[in-house]
User: What shape does this take?
Amino acid sequence: MKDTDIIELYNKRDETAIKETETKYGRLLNKIAYEILDSSEDSEECVNTTYLKTWNAIPPTVPQSLRAFICRIVRNTALSLLQKLGKRKKEDIYYELQDVIMDDNTTEMKAEAKELTTLINGFLALQKKRNRQLFVLRYYYNTSIKTLAESFQMGEQAVASQLMRMRESLRAYLIDNGISI
Assistant: This one.
């Protein structure tokens, strides 16, 4: 079933929409949640919460991409659950980006969030496809370096080095575009 058809089911308040979302994206959502939570039980809870949040969000929201929309929901839900549970992954990848993107909740930083998102997307658009995929899989989907190395047929050190170079390039790109770091 096409995403537009599934969105239409949500708009009609047809509960089949949840089943169709699960059929089409359930494995992906579970993978994202598991990469963050490292627990099957917590991941299942997170995915179920994602279906509920999606149900409550559509309508009024009409996502341009259902996949991106629900991936963002599951990721944010998993990160919130992780924080609520007081857990930290052995490998907390957000520390890798802390020197590039400050985790600051000031009003000024919140106002820059949209601009920052646009700039990061612009930076990624300038990257080679492989580098863009590495970056997104690592920092959005929380994929481990070991898994990335296997998927891209690279050594773990090569993946780590490439990600480090990309973080440095991102830092320079943000500075050049007026984001103070």
Summary: The mean pLDDT is 85. The radius of gyration is 18 Å. The first helix runs from residue 3 to 11.
